[in-house]
Recover the amino acids of this structure.
């Protein structure tokens, strides 16, 4: 089945230790998104790629970076995680910028 | 102007009843209105969506009602089942193709 896959599902990292989350998709969608979702809140867009064009939200901290080496894969790098970065990180894709399809998420814990 | 206001925050409905969640917006440039369903520990799943040129859309037990003049839209879940217990988010897409999310409604269906 075509889908959005996120690895790992659970990630524990230490305060200040860099961490990378990955997303892959078999939908062949040209737009990929990274969202941060904290408990009982709506997802918050961090950045997105339209094809290879990177779009950063104005309030996304510099601590967050992203890479998209090809159509299928996208990575979220958190350079120096703080306790406030503990959250669910969601990857989503879309073809025509309207219907967005989400992966299962990666739950990040910072100790 | 960029907000989507969602109510209620939480909702308890008896099995077989109708669940109704409401959303309101101000920005008339919004042109796509999806509803997402999210189970604990999972990513949001696109449930149903509507464009502003349509007043109602039905898919199975789920119906969106859209009132363009009032700038309101709502989700109706007919014959609500315990398996429908989840958090529901409404959203609206702005002219930059960004989703503006409501705060979410936690729905509990009592058996």
């Amino acid at each position: 089945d075509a889908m959005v896959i996120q690895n790992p599902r659970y990630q524990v990292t230490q305060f200040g230790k860099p961490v990378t989350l990955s997303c892959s998709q078999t939908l062949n969608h040209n737009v990929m998104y990274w969202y941060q979702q904290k408990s009982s809140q709506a997802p918050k867009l961090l950045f997105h790629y339209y094809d290879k064009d990177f779009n950063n939200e104005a309030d996304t901290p510099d601590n967050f970076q992203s890479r998209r080496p090809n159509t299928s894969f996208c990575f979220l790098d958190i350079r120096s995680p703080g306790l406030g970065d503990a959250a669910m990180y969601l990857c989503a894709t879309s073809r025509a910028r309207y219907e967005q399809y989400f992966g299962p998420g990666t739950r990040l814990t910072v100790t | 102007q960029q907000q989507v206001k969602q109510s209620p925050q939480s909702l308890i409905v008896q099995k077989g009843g109708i669940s109704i969640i409401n959303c309101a917006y101000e920005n008339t440039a919004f042109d796509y209105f999806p509803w997402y369903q999210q189970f604990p520990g999972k990513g949001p799943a696109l449930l149903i969506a509507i464009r502003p040129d349509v007043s109602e859309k039905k898919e199975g037990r789920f119906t969106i009602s859209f009132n363009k003049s009032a700038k309101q839209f709502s989700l109706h879940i007919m014959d609500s089942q315990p398996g429908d217990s989840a958090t529901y988010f409404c959203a609206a897409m702005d002219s930059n193709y960004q989703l503006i999310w409501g705060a979410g409604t936690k729905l509990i269906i009592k058996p």
